[in-house]
Amino acid sequence: MKEDFLQYVWKFKKFNFSDLVTTVGETLVILNSGEDHSGSGPDFFNAQIMIDDQIWAGNIEIHLKSSDWYVHAHETDVAYENVILHVVWEHDTEVYRKDNSEIPVLEIKKYIAPNLLMRYKALTAGKSWIYCEKQLESIPQFTLMHWQERLFFERLERKSVSITALAEHSGNDWEAVLFWILAKNFGLNTNGDLFLKIARSIPFTIIRKEAFEYENLEALLLGRAGLLADEKEDQYYKSLQNRWMYLSVKYQLAHVHIDPVAFFRHRPDNFPTIRLSQLAQLYHRHHNLFSKLICCDTVTQIKAILEVAVSPYWKTHYQFDRLSPPKKKVFSDAFMELIIINTIVPLQFTYALQNGRDCTEESICLLSAMAPEKNAVLDKFLEFKIKAQSAYESQALLQLKKEYCERKRCLECAIGIELLKG
Predict the structure, then answer these.
(1) In the chain, pLDDT over 70 holds for what percent of residues?
(2) What Pfam families does this protein's entry cite (predicted)?
């Protein structure tokens, strides 16, 4: 038994309301069960109850045992002074307010139907991956569709928090924000945070000024990444190294410690040298990139903008001093779609929010037009007959796994609530 089950029972009124009595035998009528509250303080605010013909208004606190009141030190917290009813599974001690009046207690277990308790135990029984894995296939499609939409926007809203923080830091320079987020996502999971640090350590005004020469952009990015710090015979390396030294002095770029970028376990096309060259080429080719991307409402339009290759040197290299067979090294469809999912759509969504505009339908349409992502989480959902048909649905499933399944929030999940209905 967990406290979240009792909160679910109280919130959705899944117990017998008739003939309620407190632990001291007073008649109890629930007039308003209150508003659930996820922050600090009591579990439900603004409730109304009647005890022996006396109406009370205030808050409700829920625990497994009455003694949990003292375990959680509520007796010293002023936020709990207006609790009018203590709802518990098991009453094991009296609880008093500061004025020594006893807080009424409802021991709720005797009012919960046995079949609901059985369904709860079945839902939270042993698992190999997630709790509801054996029951997923039975969930009505209507429930899944509506829950996926909510999950998708929860994921977008979570991403928008960090984007909003970047926008505030930049003084709402959205071109700079785009550059930072693109850099992070060009670095993928391994180098993402390092690429973000590199991008933020170079004032975007410098990127704007130097965008007319791609060698200068490469020098800035590769130099800041620590990839121009050695002595090599390679002529292009020496050229970039000289440019980096000149630009760092010209713009008085302060030293910033950047951990070494990772090459290990990357496919060559994902080497940091290649991704940073592509980022430089993107900004060399497209000035005012944010202004162009923010207006795109189709995948085709976005991909047309993202169609850039590396600079000439990197067509025959993956690392300095090492020749490789010629290759254009353009973005793959999969990489462009990753950028659309993790950069373009969240940025469009956040920018619309900041300007009081609703772009929810546009976000859904964009990602619904793209194939679902491929990863271990989605493969596992497929084993349990839940298949993502698009990137929109795969994003929703990733949100479900990370924010609900892994955190055991079954009773806040539409799937878990559906299964408890029986």
Answers:
(1) 100
(2) DUF2851
